[in-house]
Specification:
About 40% of the residues lie in helices and about 15% in strands. It has twelve helices and ten strands. Helix 5 links the parallel strand 6 and strand 7. Bound molecules: ligand PBG. Ligand PBG binds next to helix 6.
Length: about 325
């Protein structure tokens, strides 16, 4: 290399000198339409209960949830993902409340869809909010039987679709459940109901606050989900999981957790090129929130940076508890 006009010819910092040019050369951006808001719904009317480990997030009664959802839709958020806080007396070993067409999840879905907003409802398919043992499936002799569980998940998906769910999101990690659910939905005419598969979901420590929020933590106790959720050590296995779910009819796939797993997001998007989502889970939200509360991080900039990093890694969208707050910031 020859230096004719001084050193150096190429100055990477030139395009960083002012906000306008930094914006002009930005490769990625976050907008409200990238954000899906996970929400917790509880029984009752006109009640909202703060969630200790998810400061700023609440368990909403259906009426109040509807008010919040209107604001979210106004901000341009495209969808919410509903999670129910099932009353303990409605939980059982077989989680049959999951298939009750009038359960909290279905009532909340119906109420939100009746608002007639330009907003999708994502319903989680798994039994953990409904079981006394806190597992995502049945528990028989200490094991989670795959095929028997899948049968119930199909019924759960159908009652959710009947309630008006737009996107069924199986988070249970059983084998073959995407094709079984697809067939079950199609058989009763729900050919347009979409499936967003939690395709690469890891047995992670970062779900702690969520389990407190839905009230499944004490049910699960010392138990773990390692016989069905993935080992955090594995990457190639994630690609096989995603390939299977796509071949079984998943319209979109998800990687979960989010930030510690951006390598997986990147590989999934690069390999398959399908709509790819990441879930910035409860523990990730809690970490940023707790650090900010201590004055160790700037909440707003750490939040936006984290969301931008998902986009850079290749995610088309992010499920995040920051959705409303971030959308409000982006609007300013
Ligand atoms: C349940 C489910 C979990 C989450 C979403 N769906 C918890 C789990 O698998 O134990 C976690 C979400 C979060 O931590 O924010 N199948």
């Amino acid at each position: 290399m020859e230096f004719t006009a001084g050193f150096p010819m190429t100055r990477m910092r030139r395009v960083r000198q002012a906000a306008w040019v930094r914006g002009m050369v930005a490769e990625q951006g976050v907008s409200a339409q990238d954000l899906i808001w996970p929400v917790f719904v509880q029984e009752g009317t006109n009640t909202k209960t703060p969630i200790g480990s998810l400061t700023g997030q609440f368990r909403w009664s259906i009426d109040l949830l509807c008010e919040e959802v209107k604001k979210a839709a106004d901000l341009g958020i495209p969808a919410i993902a509903i999670f129910p806080v099932t009353p303990p007396e409605r939980k059982s070993a077989d989680g049959k409340e999951a298939t009750n067409p009038d359960n909290l999840m279905c009532r909340a879905t119906r109420a939100v869809k009746e608002l007639g907003l330009n907003l999708g409802v994502v319903c989680d398919v798994a039994l953990d909010p409904y079981t006394t043992h806190g597992h995502d499936g049945l528990l028989v002799d200490g094991r989670i039987p795959n095929d028997e569980t899948t049968e119930i998940l199909c019924q759960q998906a159908v009652v959710q679709a009947e309630a008006g769910c737009d996107i069924i999101a199986p988070s249970d990690m059983n084998d073959g459940r995407i094709s079984e659910i697809r067939v079950a939905l199609d058989e009763v005419g729900f050919t347009d109901v979409m499936i967003m598969s939690y395709a690469a979901k890891y047995a992670s420590s970062f779900y702690g606050p969520f389990r407190e929020a839905v009230g499944s933590a004490s049910n699960l106790g010392q138990g773990d989900k390692k016989t069905y959720q993935m080992n955090p050590a594995n990457t190639n296995e994630a690609l096989r999981e995603v390939a299977l779910d796509i071949s079984e009819g998943a319209d979109m796939v998800m990687v979960k957790p989010g930030m510690p797993y951006l390598d997986i997001v990147q590989r999934v998007k690069a390999t398959f090129g399908v709509p790819t989502f990441a879930y910035q889970v409860s523990g990730e939200y809690a970490m940023i929130t707790a650090a900010a509360q201590n004055g160790w991080l700037n909440r707003e900039s750490a939040m936006l940076e984290s969301l931008l990093c998902f986009k850079r890694a290749g995610a088309d969208g992010v499920l995040t508890y920051f959705a409303v707050e971030a959308a409000e910031m982006l609007k300013r």
